[in-house]
Amino acid sequence: NPNFLNFLNDKNIDIKVICDYGDIKNFKIKNFECKGIFHAKFIIIDENIVIITSANLSEEHFYKNHNNFVIIKNDVIAKFLTKKFDSFWYDYKFPYKFVSEDKKIEIWFSPENNCCELIEREIEKAQKSINFATYVFTDRELAEKLIKKINENKVDVRGIIENNNIQPYSVFYLLLSYGCNIRKSNMSGVLHDKFFIFDKEKIITGSFNPTKSAKENVELILFINDKKVAESFYREWKNLYLFKSIVEKF
């Protein structure tokens, strides 16, 4: 929103933007070049507050499509992401992974990290349930991890995938055929989330779609081990599953 950016600029707030492509007049903006695309979505405010989201910073994603936003007020995390942002801005190397001292929060960046490994790790640990909502899901290896969990441990796996991305490479029908309770989104906008909930106690969210191409992008994935946060995600997931998705007959 140019008007809002101008409002901040008038207050002498230093604003820098890194994106895959774009141009905003009178603002510091860098179009980042990499093998894939610059797909990470995070905001740092005063080195004290961070916002990590699945949304592209556009009016369509804010007002029409379904996304999630996680707001964290933590100096240590904010400083890590500030230095990470600076490493992209000034082209120098900086660690691509953050783990909090209590190991309850992790932030991974791809392509240097294989973000699927974090998802796979939590799939392996799940004891009761895995719930997910994702814009696109084409990674067959990750889907097979879910199928294995269904078959071996009787874990209840339920998911929602954006209706426009079911064909031709989606794992939707593969998961459906092996007993996953999976549905297509059915809303006016696009289901643009990328989150997993494990045992209603832990979540993974961020910009990373479970696809092979995402492994080449600059992506950010966030892990939180917190029951209250997980329950909040689960309430919204349940609403989507019951009222904003449809069952596909196989």
Secondary-structure element order, N to C: HEEEEHEHEEHEHEHEEEEHE
Query: Which structural class is indicated by helix and strand composition?
Result: alpha+beta
Please report the number of helical segments. 7
What's the assembly state of these chains?
single chain
In which range does the helix fraction lie?
25-40%
Numbering strands along the chain, what is their spatial order in the largest sheet? 6-7-13-12-11-8-9-10-14
Low-confidence stretches at least 5 residues in length (pLDDT < 50)? none
Q: Percent of residues in beta strands? A: 25-35%
Rg, alpha carbons = 18 Å
Q: Would you identify the CATH architecture of the largest domain?
A: 2-Layer Sandwich
How would a textbook summarize the main sheet?
9 strands, mixed
CATH level 4 superfamily of the largest domain: Endonuclease Chain A
Structural domains: how many: 2
Mean pLDDT metric: 93
Distance between the termini: 43 Å
CATH C-level label of the largest domain = Alpha Beta
How many β-strands, per DSSP? Answer: 14
User: Outline, from the CA principal axes?
Assistant: globular
CATH topology of the largest domain: Endonuclease, Chain A
